[in-house]
Specification:
By secondary structure, the protein is an alpha/beta fold. The protein has 14 helices and 12 strands.
Length: about 350
């Protein structure tokens, strides 16, 4: 199991890049940049030139539909080149509510549009790599021209991994069929992963004739220490609060928590963060987050995600370098009596 970290780029991209490099030094296997407060690609351009070891740099839940596949293809090609083939593209199949959806009256067919988005990305990348004539014709996207002047040319590692995220069981199926990985939603439970996500992934993998070993399920693990819960959150845009901002229809319906999560979402949008967490029933809080003292966090993460995750992506409410380093060190150390490599 690989140990990754999720971070939210701030307004200072140099600071964000330094945090990525610090995560590399701590022994993480990857750093994933989220598209919430700032553009997720920019800090990676700084870190890509400095990171040395086999350390993945990627986006998580970068909005797909507001960007043309051509724009995304050019950005990711540059990052793949600059990082020496260590870049992974994480796309969000959902559209944020503050951005236009379709023509403003009808929602697009998300699954078929996401399928075309991925297929057109790969067609554009093939044109970059092999100077192949670009002829992609779909219902949602059409690309018919790649002028030599705009073609960046081949790179050493052209096979850019694509991870999907979204709140739709059909998206999990699509990820299994077309992608190299899936980022599970921030709000999830072990039972939801086991009973909804994994079966859908298996169907997608089976339809494309691929084995489970070719695919990575990356699960965000929201780590909340009792001290953090008691004191509240220092950052106005903390990751822990964002977990409730986006709608989680599938997950909420699975547990029968629609009314509760809608209420929490309203609190998150209003900035009432202390009420957000203190109003949650304790059993639900422990279902969706790792609530443990720092020295017990690694054991709690192992217990919850053993047999489910290929990658664990640690998510912290506040950026505490000492706490982060201690937890990843514990996760990289096999438990007593276990001679296998846990990472």
């Amino acid at each position: 199991m690989k140990i990754d970290i999720l971070f939210q780029p701030g307004k200072d991209f140099r600071t964000s890049a330094d945090r990525i490099l610090g995560a590399e030094t701590c022994g993480f296997d990857a750093a994933w940049s989220a598209e919430w407060l700032s553009n997720p690609f920019f800090p990676l351009t700084i870190a890509a030139t400095a990171a040395q070891r086999p350390f993945t740099l990627g986006t998580i839940a970068a909005y797909a539909f507001p960007r043309s596949p051509m724009i995304t293809a050019q950005i990711t090609w540059d990052l793949a080149r600059q990082s020496g083939g260590r870049f992974a593209l994480g796309l969000d199949a959902d559209t944020p509510e503050f951005l236009p959806i379709g023509d403003g009256r009808h929602r697009p067919d998300t699954v078929s549009k996401m399928r075309e988005y991925i297929e057109s990305l790969r067609a554009i990348w093939r044109s970059f790599q092999y100077d192949e004539r670009l002829r992609f014709r779909g219902r949602h996207y059409q690309f018919r021209l790649m002028a030599p002047f705009f073609n960046p040319g081949p790179i050493k590692d052209p096979d850019i991994p694509i991870f999907l995220s979204g709140d739709d069981s059909d998206i999990y199926d699509l990820a299994g069929e077309l992608c190299q990985g899936l980022h599970a939603n921030l709000l999830h439970s072990r039972s939801y992963l086991r009973d909804v996500v994994l079966p859908q992934l298996s169907r997608g993998l089976e339809s494309s004739g691929r084995s489970r070993e070719t695919f990575e399920l990356a699960i965000p693990a929201l780590v909340l220490t009792p001290d953090v819960l008691e004191a509240g959150f220092a950052s106005q845009n903390d990751v822990a609060s964002y977990a409730f901002v986006r709608r989680n229809h599938s997950f909420a319906a699975f547990h029968g928590w629609e009314e509760l999560l809608d209420s929490q979402r309203e609190r998150a949008l209003s900035g009432d963060k202390r009420a957000l967490w203190h109003s949650l029933p304790e059993d639900i809080l422990h279902e969706i987050a790792i609530v443990a003292e720092p020295e017990r966090a690694a054991a709690a993460i192992r217990q919850r995600y053993s047999g489910l995750a290929d990658r664990i992506c640690l998510v912290f409410a506040d950026w505490n370098p000492e706490l982060i380093a201690a937890i990843v060190a514990d996760l990289k150390t096999p438990p007593l009596g276990d001679n296998t490599d846990q990472a």
